[in-house]
TrEMBL record, chain A:
Protein name per the record: Dihydroorotase
Cofactor mode of binding and number, as noted: Binds 2 Zn(2+) ions per subunit.
Record family assignment: Belongs to the metallo-dependent hydrolases superfamily. DHOase family. Class I DHOase subfamily.
Enzyme active site: D308
Gene Ontology biological process terms from the UniProt entry: 'de novo' UMP biosynthetic process; purine nucleobase catabolic process
Residues that hold Zn(2+) 1 according to the record: H63, H65, D155, D308
Keywords: Hydrolase, Metal-binding, Pyrimidine biosynthesis, Zinc
Catalytic activity: (S)-dihydroorotate + H2O = N-carbamoyl-L-aspartate + H(+)
GO terms for cellular component: cytoplasm
Gene Ontology terms, MF aspect: allantoinase activity; dihydroorotase activity; zinc ion binding
Organism: Desulfocapsa sulfexigens (strain DSM 10523 / SB164P1)
Entry-linked Pfam families: DHOase
Highest taxon of the lineage: Bacteria
Cofactor(s) needed by this chain: Zn(2+)
Length: 428, 320
């Protein structure tokens, strides 16, 4: 990692959803800020010819699990942000289900300090909605906000008490914090380990019906309407939930939503012969759901692509399927899988960048998301043609739990720049 | 190539018996034919052959099951194998020992075959990937119970001569029954029509994809049926109420003489994987009536399990 004063990217395809720019050109960075290009290249400039490659605002993953503090054997802020940089991300928002739970200023500060000290990406902590994420009593949002939290969520668990969720939205509104919902009706999902359908019946596994997601998504929408506050729905997996979100948006409810690459790429068939690397919550759904998710990315139902990057060690995964942990890693495959949507004609390049950068920045109200002059130099250079096989050895995350192991993927981040500093470089 | 040549060329290739799903029609016929040849041994005065002498078989039961365990144990002993019973409680799992740890410990004892009963679907397959021994699935979660389905197929075949074209009704908790799951796969592979019936709370999506015909009523299921099988009803669950009471269940879904006389074939076979809750899923007049083959199922269970043990590890040894 080198700190450079001046970085010049030449002959790239500049893509900026905020300004609508999609044109060939150069990008100049000085002291961490994007500046106008000049005629003469000064000495001591680091210059890259990125012909045939895309120059986009640094990617932002608004939903990851970094496992530190408490489960450093699964991931650390250092290893997680390293994986993020390799995947083209300049910033991530980390969920609070660490040990201890990030429900107070001291844990939030621990995360931001560690990220500043040893992070390869910006880290935006997400605080807990309730104390200890136990579903009773609000965490101290004012303090969390001051300490650097950008949102609150009890992710991993839904907030079962509707009154508490209503109060969370109202109180978060007072502190300008986003509430992120893990939408799951637990009575319906209890003991389930995959999507309820033909595949769960064949494998004899207890299923989680799509309705478990839709019911809670509808409650969150109703509460957002009641309170007039914002709600962000995390990791949407079903067509039913997507439809509810689209309808709510159409009538002006302040709802945003994200989905994850595994939901638009895979179906519950990926569980195959009890492959625990295809076990996550919400679970992989049916082909019909997958198509609905892709349509939702196209028509604006979804605002963002987030990975729900959830590293686990083999100890949690090499188990009976129903006992194995939920979750898959995603930081290092998200861009490739999203680029496949562009190649398939589902979305355009600008829309992809919006979903992976500009929109998360806007929703979280953080810097980045644009490469317009004067903005912070968070930049990702993408080689849309680069082909590679995603192998376990190549993974920088401590977690190797990916359903995409040994897939041949196309398109990759080849240069990641955070605040003018190169955090990942495959160009040299 | 004549049919006979095809039959001669057949070779049983499975190291493990994980489910009916992996078995071809030829495999199933071969297992059933082998079982019939072994059934005779059980009727001799000295019920023992040296076929599997020196072989080590571990009965590894994570879930209590006296009947299946005993059936496998008798099968092994009749073929002179050494058998060991390990009743692993799930408590060892909660102590932090994983199934794979346990498997490695078992492997250290160098068994030839491990017979596994486990509460998690897919657990026998997981074991099979981590040990050298052959694995026989003696029931995993709500997934499969292949030896039970094979003994059911054997019993029906003995009585009807064939399974093809028969109408087989399975009534009860289809959703949570690995027996039903394996039976649906097995009987449909052999060309039977398998109908399932029960209250909607006992159904799961995709039973039709497995090959079953999902019936709206018990009458529809048993109409002209050649075989009627009732499944054991577990006591009502508190965490997931599937039926209001056993009393109501027996009233609307219990198999009784009148129902069969009115709708099923006169020579209908009555089956049950046991143990029966008499008066709940099946009335005594049916369970002990003339069409009942429930005890034959138990007898055939030993023969089928002898065949499975022989086929997975006794192939090179002579048959006694
Ligand atoms: Zn979640």
């Amino acid at each position: 990692m080198t700190t450079v004063n001046r970085l010049i990217l030449q002959n790239g395809r500049l893509l900026d959803p905020v300004t609508g720019v999609d044109a060939k050109g150069d990008l100049w960075v000085e002291d961490g800020v994007i500046v106008p290009a000049q005629k003469e290249i000064p000495e001591n400039s680091e210059v890259y010819d990125v012909h045939g490659k895309w120059i986009v605002p640094g990617l932002i993953d608004m939903h990851v699990h970094l496992r530190e503090p408490g489960e450093e054997y699964k991931e650390t802020i250092k290893s997680g942000t390293r994986a993020a940089a390799a995947g083209g991300f300049t910033a991530v928002a980390c969920m609070p289900n660490t040990t201890p739970v990030n429900d107070c200023a001291s844990v939030t500060q621990f995360i931001t300090k560690a990220a500043t000290r040893e992070g390869s990406a910006r880290v935006y902590p997400v605080g807990a909605i309730s104390k200890g994420s136990k579903g009773a009593g609000l965490a101290e949002y004012g303090e969390l906000r001051q300490a650097g939290a950008v949102a609150v969520s009890d992710d991993g668990l839904p907030v079962l008490d509707s009154q508490l969720m209503r109060r969370a939205m109202q109180y978060a509104g007072s502190h300008d914090l986003l509430v992120i919902s893990h939408s799951e009706e637990m009575a319906l999902s209890r003991n389930g380990s995959m999507n309820e359908g033909v595949v769960s019946t064949r494998l004899g596994l207890r299923g989680i019906p799509a309705a478990a997601e839709a019911i809670m998504v509808y409650r969150e929408i109703a509460l957002a309407e009641l309170t007039g506050q914002r709600i962000h729905i995390a990791h949407v997996s079903t067509g039913a939930a997507a439809e509810l979100i689209a309808q709510a948006k159409a009538r002006g409810v302040r709802v945003t939503a994200e989905t994850a690459p595994h939901y638009f790429t895979l179906t519950d068939e990926a569980v195959g012969d009890y492959n625990t690397n295809a076990k996550m919550n919400p679970p992989l759904r049916t082909e019909k759901d997958r198509q609905a998710i892709r349509k939702g990315l196209q028509d604006g139902t979804f605002d963002a692509i987030a990975t729900d990057h959830a590293p686990h060690s083999v100890l949690e995964k090499e188990l009976e399927f129903d006992r194995a942990a939920n979750g898959v890693i995603g930081l290092e495959t998200s861009l490739s899988l999203s680029l496949a949507l562009v190649r398939d004609g589902v979305i355009g390049a600008l829309r992809m960048v919006e979903l992976m950068s500009s929109a998360p920045a806007r929703i979280l109200q953080v810097e980045g998301g644009t490469i317009a002059q004067g903005n912070v130099a968070d930049i990702t250079v993408i080689d849309p043609e680069k082909r590679y096989v995603f192998t376990e050895d190549s993974i920088l995350s401590k977690g190797k739990n990916s359903p995409f192991l040994d897939w041949e993927l196309q398109g990759k981040a080849v240069l990641t720049v955070m605040g003018g500093r190169i955090t990942h470089n495959e160009l040299t | 190539m004549s049919t006979k040549n095809v039959k001669d060329a057949y070779q049983f290739k499975h190291k493990h018996i994980l489910g009916i799903e992996q078995l071809s029609v030829a495999d199933i016929f071969h297992i059933l034919d082998t079982a019939i040849s072994f059934k005779e041994i059980s009727s001799r005065s000295i019920k023992k052959v040296p076929t599997l002498k020196g072989k080590t078989i571990i009965n590894f039961f994570f879930e209590p099951s006296t009947r299946t365990r005993l059936s496998f144990e008798i099968a092994a002993k009749r073929m002179s194998a050494d058998t060991f019973n390990i009743a692993a409680s799930t408590s060892s799992a909660t102590k932090g020992e994983t199934l794979i740890d346990t498997a490695r410990n078992l492997q250290a004892m160098n068994p030839d075959t491990i017979i596994v009963r486990h509460g998690s679907s897919g657990a026998p397959g997981l074991l099979a990937r981590h040990v050298e021994a052959s694995i026989i699935n003696a029931g995993d979660g709500t997934h499969e119970h292949p030896s039970q389905a094979l003994l059911d197929m054997m019993t029906v075949r003995e009585h009807r001569g064939t399974v093809e074209g028969l109408k087989i009704a399975i009534v009860g908790d289809i959703a949570h029954s690995r027996v039903a799951h394996s039976d649906i796969l097995g009987f449909t592979k052999l060309g039977a029509e398998v109908r399932v019936a029960g209250p909607e709370t006992f159904m799961v999506p995709g039973l039709d994809a497995l090959g079953a015909r999902v019936c709206g009523s018990i009458v529809e299921a048993v109409t002209d049926a050649d075989v009627v099988m009732a499944l054991r009803i577990q006591r009502e669950r508190q965490d997931d109420p599937l039926i209001p009471s056993l009393r109501e269940y027996s009233q609307f879904y219990g198999i009784n003489h009148n129902l069969l006389q009115k709708h099923a074939r006169p020579d209908v076979l009555v089956m049950h994987p046991g143990p029966i809750n008499r008066g709940v899923e099946m009335n005594p007049d049916v369970a002990d009536g003339k069409g009942s083959v429930i005890l034959e199922q138990v007898t055939n269970g030993v023969a089928v399990r002898m065949a499975l043990l022989y086929l997975v590890m006794g192939r090179e040894g002579g048959r006694g």
